[in-house]
Every structure is written in structure tokens, then in C-alpha cells.
What does this fold into?
Amino acid sequence: MAEKLLEIKNLSVEYHSDEDILYAVNNVNLTLEPGETLGLVGETGAGKTTIAKSIMRILPAAQAEITSGEILYRGENLLALKEKEMQKVRGNKIAMIFQDPMTALNPVETVGYQIAEAIKRHNKISRNEAADRAGDMLEMVGIPRERLGEYPHQFSGGMKQRVVIAMALACNPELLLADEPTTALDVTIQAQVLDMMRGLKEKLGTSVILITHDFGVVADFCTAVAVTYAGEIIERGSVDRIFNNPQHPYTQGLFNSLPSLEATSRRLKPIKGLMPDPTALPPGCRFCERCEYATEECAKKAPEIYEVEPGHTVKCFRARRDD
Amino acid sequence: MTEQAKKPKKQTRLHEIWVQLKRNKLAVVSMFVLIALVLVAILAPVLAPYYYDEQNVANKYAPPSAEHLLGTDKLGRDILSRLIYGTRASLTMGIVAVLIGGLIGILIGAISGYYGNWVDNLMMRLLDIYQAIPMFLLCVALAAILGASLRNAIIALGLGIVPGYARIMRASVMTVRETEYIESAKSINCGVFRIITKHIIPNAIGPMIVQLTMGVGSCILSGAALSYIGLGVQPPTPEWGSMISEARAVMRQYPTHAIYPGICIMIAVLACNLLGDGLRDALDPRLKN
Amino acid sequence: MAPLLEVHNLKKYFKTKAGPLHAVDDVTFTLDTGKTLGVVGESGCGKSTLGRTLLHLTDVTDGKIFFEGEDITYPSRSKLKKLREQMQIIFQDPFSSLDPRMTVGEAIMEPLKMRGGMSKADMQAKTKELMDTVGLAARFEHSYPHELDGGRRQRIGIARALSLDPKFIVCDEPVSALDVSIQAQVINLMLDLQEERGFAYMFVTHDLSVVKYISDEIMVMYLGQMVEKAPSDELFANTLHPYSKALLSAIPIPKYPNNTKRILIEGEITSPINPKPGCRFAARCRYACEACSQPQKLEEYTPGHYVACCRYKELINIKEEM
It folds into this structure.
């Protein structure tokens, strides 16, 4: 097997508050091959962002605690690195972009200066060279070089997100973590940004983990999908497998509850109920309460991860083959 | 996170604030200090060993002793008793002045913030002019016009702090005004009065509570200063500020006479500020969990 | 019989320092009882302002609004009070549209209290009934909104809107803040209620797959103007306006492999302050020509299908080249 770019093993993350412990991520295993584009999908509170922040090691130190697991990046455990060493990884080898581009840009510095700073942080080059590279980056994301001297507020939302992407890609990272990068944008702008990102990904060979709740974006952009639910990855496979042959009842339910453009019936088929309270998770399968196939076994015991096809894994007893 | 409603106990907002506040030990201690001070003020006749005006000229400037724990002053009055009775005037000054200033400030701020446009412009410009007069000078002038007495000092202090509160309230109201639940209230026919009193003020009052608490401290301080220069409480009524003023003449011989009321002022002001600080953290929803 | 709601050349301009902002410009439509009009467009196209103007949450600049045949463009105070009972709104964000200091019960009871004429016991009974209607368990009556999830909060918003038995409800992106599985639950609830009580909905959204699902008729807005309006199926089958085409093709479809071709439009939305008289989309339109700088007339292509584009007839035969 080829070398894995990223391998997450048994990752668990908890958030502590006064009264209770919130189990945000529970025993997550996830691997990413070089060049792969993985869509990490799931609902609010399913732990998607927490996984990404764990990889970057930017969880809020006061409340969050990684209780177990390893995150291997090219075989090296990121969780064991010293903060100093981690700084060399962050931005340089792994970069992250967020939903709200405003939080990533400093309103009182010019866009050019900010991109140049990002480049200089990891490369020993002169100011002029950095500014030159910053100009190249802007052009790469489809913004004319002349706008280097402008401030973030002079850019529209879609343009700001492009600037953020240019900053993230400035040091040519191998892995890009994109947390809902287009959710705050209008559809036509989203289409532009996704189109641009697709082009860049092909050109630079960056691997991407795209966090989103929009299956449409996943179909458009990703090669593989991991579905999260209540802090677990309940199904993972290629886009083709997940979209055309989903195995986990939750994944199936999600697809059924989407209003489709071709639908003719006037009723949607929602999944009944709500996600379990992450401070009091059920002992068995997390989806058990909402699942139409649930058996007694599901309520008692959490299912293991079963492989239904090479590369397609499901965390559900129904996928178990009796042999 | 999602199903907290399942908990049998109804979580009220007050309870929540208390839970948050409990974390800050200094704030809790401060709160108890303030409660104690209020009790001292109320129970002064019971607690004080002597009446505040009980003179014994033969025994003036007595050092601390069993009869007079902190000694006596120039007229032979028990200093401890005067400090205890002085709590009344000082706390009244702080609390009532803040209530007056706060109430007027909240009203002006709420109206100004809610209506916006020319109403806001007019009110804010008037406040600008008002604020251009130094606050302490204003107090002095008002006390001088109205005559020097505890009541007038309170009025002067109260009026002096109006602009600050009005501005804080206005900013707070302007944020709340833009929220959708205000629009929602309009869409179900809530009148302006109900919207302001039922929806806007309760939601905008958070930052005010902090300021009001801290304001008590600063009003005690300003009140003491007014009394010190003779524009506040009139003798023989004791007040911490005026006690320092009286001790001024004998500062070299009997420094403790000025230090005792000074410490009282310090404790009260510090307690108010620390509680205010704690409340700010407790009321800030961003710091929750 | 007159339609429930009739809007003629409605305009809403906001004053700004740079000049008038044309939030809603010349919008005309009618809506019948029991029907749903979908209003779609991107942020800043005036779709939310349109809903708020109809409910008189903001003043009308120009135009006419008729409700049940009666002119309500500038209603008197007492008339407005009555109108607001018949026209309601469900807001987008269930987190900001509920007063955080009011319990669920209080929030649902508030509209009843404002209308008056009911005893306390009656109001409480009605509140319980409403909670039941929208699927909120009785145990939440004393909960505060922040203790509930988004789906339940939106149900509170729906209950509030229902409480006065309105005839017309503006739904301002009511499900866009919700997760898909919850979104489906809320949409179903809204459809059931419509079937039961015959409301007319104006469903404002940027999510085209939702709007196709719920609407009888769809109106596409761009920078305050209506660029196309047609029965739902007709719009999707025969999209005429270049902007509608681009918008429809930009929706990411959850299907793999997905072979629909994207029509990418260049640039971003321009400012609605002091717009030029011509077609507002012209600056981004690949088919823009001289005539586009003239004001565009709304033309009827097939019965009920209106489009505001001077070249739409030529464009029908042009295959979008990628």
C-alpha cells in the first residue's frame, strides 16, 4: 500500500464544562491517501470541526482535551510534537481555512502584506521576493495583482475567501483542511470558488479534507466521503459508493431527506428524532434511537467497523457478514 | 447541549448567573462584604457601642482602649461608632446616586437607542454638551446651588453620572434593536412601550448591571470627596469622607483618624469593583461553558 | 373573487449617504389562498425586504398592495393591527428571532396576549394546543430557547406565527439555518399546516431545491428587480433569463456522477445604490448588448411565465456553450 498522508487512530476528544463532559469525538479512525479529496460530512455538532482542529492542534486548550489517539502525518505523530515543531507544520505542511473569511484576515493590514507574512513565516526570503510571491498567489486565485495594496474590507465575501485560500496555499501545503469554505457564500459565488479550488488542487496536487454539510458540494468536489454522526465516523467510502450505494441507515436517511430537484412527491422523508445529547451518549449504536432497523443488539452494543467493499467501511451491524 | 430541558430543575437566568459568579471567588467574597456593609448600615444603632454624637470633651483624642476600640476624636466621640454610622451616609450616597443616575441614564439611553435618527442625535448632542462640563465641577456647582446636604450631594452625584450610563445603554439597545426578535415582536402587534420595557431593556441591561455595580464604588468615592470639601454630609452626621476631612488638621499627630475611614472607603469601593468585574464575566454569554 | 394578495409595482428604497438603495424595485405579483410563491435570489437581491415591506415592518416607498381586494399600502393604525393578525412571518434564524428571556410558553402566548380578548386560562389552553400542533412536547413549556436545538426553536417561531390564525405567512428562509434531517421535518410540518388551514405562503430562500419542492410559483430576483416569474415546473423546464439559468445551474446537486454543466457567471453582485436604468444583470451577462442599457420590460412568454430580458427569444435557441 502507498504511504498514507494522514492517519488518525482512535482519536477521542472531550470538552469539559462546569457540569458535564461533552464527548465530541469518539474513537475516530480515518486515513487519507496523498492527492485524495475527502469530504467530511455530518450535521451540526457531529464533531467534524473538532477533528480538523485536532489535526491542526488548535483546540481551545481551556476546555478541550484529547483523551486518546494518534494523528500520524507521514508517519509522524502530530500529537506528540512540541509546540515549536508543530508551528513548522502548521501553515507550512498543513493549512486550514474557515467558514468566515473575516476571522482569518487582519482588518488593519493590507492583503498583500498578510500573504507575504504567511510566506515569510516559513521561508527565508526577502521582503520583495515575498511580495512578489504574494502577487503570484493572488493571481492564482483569480484576483488581479494590483489589489495587493488593498485592505480586507475593500473585498467582497467571495473575494475575501479567495484571499484566505491564497494565504493558506502560500507555502504550498500538502494538506488543506477546509471548514465549510463556501457556506457563507451565495450559490453563484460558491460555484466560482469551488471551480477555482478544483483547478488549484489539480495544479498543486494538494490533498484536501473538505468539511461540509452539503452533499451537493461533496458530489461536485470530492473523491471520497466520510460521514460523521455523534462524534463517530459511521461510513467511509468513495463518492461513487456513498452516493449510489450507501449502507448505513443514517447515510441513507440523509439522502432521503434531501429535497431533490427531480422529486415529484410533496412530502420529504425526514429522519425521525434528533442527534443524541453528546454529554449523555447511548451505550450501543449512537443512531439506534432513530434507526428503523434497530434491534436489541444495537441498543446494547456499539457496532464495530465492517468493510463491505475494499475501501468502503460501515459502522453498523447490518453490514456484518456472518462468516 | 440540545436536551438540557430534560433536566428536572428549571434553570432560570438568575440561577445561571449565580453559577457563573460562584466561579470567581473574589467576586463572591466582595458580594458578602457588600451585604455585610449594608447590614452594618441598617443595624448601626445595635452594633455601635455609642451614639455617633455622644461627646466627651474630657476624653478627646483618646488612644484605642477597651471602651473606645479605635479611640476618640477631637470632641471625644467614639471613632468606631462614627465609622459604623458613617456607613449609612456613604452607602446611601453610593447606592441612591447610582439608582438616580442609572434610571435616568437607562431611560435616555433606551429612548435614544430605540428611536435613533434625530431623537438620538438631539439627545446625544445635548449629552455631549453636558459632558463637556467636568463631572466633579458639576457636582460642586450643583451642591453649591442646591445647598450642602446629604440629599443634594446625592442628587448632584446622580445627575453627574447620567451621561455615562445613557451612552452604555444606548449602545446596548442599538444592538438589541436590530435583532430579529424585536421585528418578531412588532409583527405580532407589540406596542412601542411593551417592546422597550419587555424586550429591549431586559436584554440590553447586562452591561448596565456591571456598570451600576462599579458605579456604586465610584459614587462612594466622589461622595466622600464632596463631603471632604464640605459640600456633602454636614456635621455632626458622620460620613467617611467628612471624617477624613475632620482628621486633616491632626493628620500628623493622629494619622489613624484619617486612615480608618480611608480603609472603609477602600474596602467598599474595592468590593463594588470586584463584584462588578465578576458580574461582567458571569453575564457574558461568550464565556459560558 | 379577488386574489388574497395583489402587489403592483412595489418599491422600497432605503436612504443611504451614497444615494437611494433600491432594495425592492418594481415588483408585481398576485398570490391566491392556499398557494405558495417562492422568492429566490442571492443575498442583497431584496427578497427579505420584500417580505418585510408586505407586512409593513418597513414603509412602502411606492406602489400598491391589496389584501383581499382592499388597498393596504398605507394602512391606518387600527387597520394595521388587524392586518398583522392576518399576515405573519417566520424568521430565518431561530436563534436570533426569539427573545432569549422568554420561555417557550411565554413566547407562544405573547401574540394572543397582544390581540387580547382571551382569558388567561384560554390562552394557556391555546398555547398547549399550538405546541402540540407544531410538535413541541409539553415539557418544553418552561424551557428557554437557548436550551433547545434549532429545529425545536423554529417550531416555536412557527407556533407564534400560527397563533393568530393568519391567512398569509411570509417565510424568510425558515429552514436554511437547520441541518438537513431537521430541515425535512420542518418543511413537512409547514406543508401539512398549509394543507390543513389553507395559508398562502411567500417562501423566501436562496435554496433552490427547497423552493422547487414547496412552491407553486417561483419568482427570481436580482438586485431588487424581478427578472423572471413562472410556475415552478415551468421555470425549471424552460428557464429563460440568463441570470436564472446561471443560478439554477450553480446549485450543487447531491448526485454522483453529476453531469449537469455549470454556467459560471463572472464577477459579483453590483451595488443596488443608484443603479443605472438598464438591465441590472447586464454587467455580468455574457449576452449583454446595446438594448440592455434600456429599461427591461416584463414580457409574458407562455401564460404565467414572465421574463424581463430583451433577448430572451433569441436566447431560447442558443445552447449554452461551456
Observations:
- The longest strand of chain C covers residues 19-31.
- Chain C touches chain A through 39 residues (CB under 8 Å).
- The longest helix of chain C spans residues 180-197.
